[in-house]
């Protein structure tokens, strides 16, 4: 499973799901799905999300076993 820290990173910046969606160019529903692990973003989208936060991809996403 691909884990992510999107919710934490958004909170640190005081961004809503809609704010992130607008910055990345995806729908708010897509952000919700990624945060809830219902959708795994493409590699291209994952890099775009990391770039939007101004961090490396491994600071946003991590591959690992289920918790």
UniProtKB/TrEMBL annotation:
Keywords, ordered alphabetically: DNA-binding
Family matches, as Gene3D superfamilies: lambda repressor-like DNA-binding domains
Protein name: Helix-turn-helix transcriptional regulator
Domain HTH cro/C1-type: residue ranges: 6-60
PANTHER family with a match to the protein in the record: DNA-BIDING PHAGE PROTEIN, TRACRIPTIONAL REGULATORY PROTEIN-RELATED-RELATED
GO molecular function: DNA binding
InterPro entries given in the database record: Cro/C1-type_HTH (IPR001387), Lambda_DNA-bd_dom_sf (IPR010982)
Keyword DNA-binding appears in the UniProt entry: yes
Domain of life of the source: Bacteria
């Amino acid at each position: 499973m691909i884990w992510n820290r999107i919710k934490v990173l958004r909170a640190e910046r005081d961004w809503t799901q809609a704010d992130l969606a607008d910055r990345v160019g995806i729908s708010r529903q897509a952000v919700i799905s990624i945060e809830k692990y219902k959708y795994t973003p493409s590699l291209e989208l994952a890099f775009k999300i990391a770039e939007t936060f101004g961090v490396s991809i491994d600071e946003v996403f991590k591959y690992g076993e289920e918790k």
